Amino acid sequence: MFCTLSTFLVSIGFYALASYLYEQLRTPYKLIKIRYFSDNRPTLKERYGDWAAVTGASDGIGKEYAKELARQKINVVLIARSEEKLQAVAKEIAEIGTGTQTKIVIADFTKGSQVYEHIEKETADIPISILVNNVGSGTPSPILKWTQEATQNIIDTNVVAVSQLSRLFFQRMKASKIKGAIVNVSSGTEMQPLPYGAYYAASKAYTRSLTLALCHEAKPFGIHVQLLSPNFVVTKINSYSRQIMKGGLFIPSASTYAKSAVDQLRDGVDETPGYFWHHIQNAVGTAFTWRVRTLAAYKIFSKISDKPKKN
Ligand SMILES: NC(=O)c1ccc[n+]([C@@H]2O[C@H](COP(=O)([O-])OP(=O)(O)OC[C@H]3O[C@@H](n4cnc5c(N)ncnc54)[C@H](OP(=O)(O)O)[C@@H]3O)[C@@H](O)[C@H]2O)c1
Predict the structure, then answer these.
(1) The predicted structure's pLDDT at residue 305
(2) Which of 54, 169, 252, 276 is least enclosed by beta carbons within 10 angstroms?
(3) pLDDT digits (tens, 9 = 90+) for 40-85
(4) Is residue 29 in some structural domain?
(5) Is the CB of residue 59 below 6 angstroms from any atom belonging to ligand 1?
């Protein structure tokens, strides 16, 4: 009897360990295989095509991602709300000197559904084969302090944009038989609820679910879908914390992060934090259950968010 029970417990232990290792190692395994053991490592352009569109391309990860695409000879449609900032990004891309073209599309995702018709019209003649749904916003703050407008804005920017643009470009790529890629930028916060960053983490859990489902629906048409889930990166979204903005081994600059993430798109991984030290962070973090992680997040974010006083 004792022997049967211990065999049962050991089997559960092995199963849990094997599941954990599979989840942690499937992306690094694929990257190592293609980078060190494959005779053929296609360029980004060979794998997907030569036009990309990046939302939220005026700053942070989106801006550096667009520049890295240009370094890899991909033409880029830059989409965001500030024309002035986008012009500056287009100038930086021209200075890279790879001769890539850029097109600017002004779009504010908080201004209603006509923004999608506008993007569709502005890009109708461009064979976009890589869509990077990067736009996102959010600052840690208790739900008690959110207004109706701010709540609507974060949902429009973080949930509606990725939903509408994934659908639109999936349909377009399928119709024109483009075997391209859709990259949806989520966040490490997708893995557990985040007290004091509740709407942000919930929007990223949505992005994760949508993207991993889309991955299966798009695969039969040769369209690659990638869930890109960074942990902290030094960008203005984190300007509420001086500590994060200092950067460090686990908090790369946006350009270091984007270079690594674009290389991982080139190598065709489908689910990744996009950066070596974020893989390590996740391997440690996910050894704990989501309830423990939520509690830890609660402790950390209750200190850094603009918390209301208790009555
Ligand atoms: N940085 C991190 O630590 C981190 C971690 C995990 C996930 N992420 C995700 O990475 C993505 C990029 O974030 P980031 O860190 O690069 O942030 P960021 O530096 O604040 O850049 C966000 C970009 O989105 C644009 N944008 C924001 N709201 C918009 C709107 N309503 N309409 C059109 N464009 C809008 C911004 O334009 P403006 O220049 O006009 O503001 C900017 O180009 C987001 O999805 C974010 O959730 C970031």
Answers:
(1) 66
(2) 276
(3) 999 999 999 999 999 999 999 999 999 999 999 999 999 999 999 9
(4) no
(5) yes
By DSSP bridging, strand 130-133 and strand 102-106 are unpaired
In a domain, 169, yes or no: yes
The candidate with the shortest Cα–Cα distance to 107, out of 76, 131, 83, is 83
Helices (H) and strands (E) in the chain, counts: 12, 7
CATH number at residue 137: 3.40.50.720
The mean pLDDT value of the chain amounts to 95
Q: Would the CA dihedral through 242, 84, 154, 160 be positive or negative?
A: negative
| 301 touches 197 (CB < 8 A) | yes
Q: Is 137 in the pocket of ligand 1 (CB under 6 A)?
A: yes
In a domain, 8, yes or no: no
Cα–ligand 1 centroid distance for 145 (angstroms): 21
Instruction: Kindly state the tokens that stand for 79.
Output: 């989409």
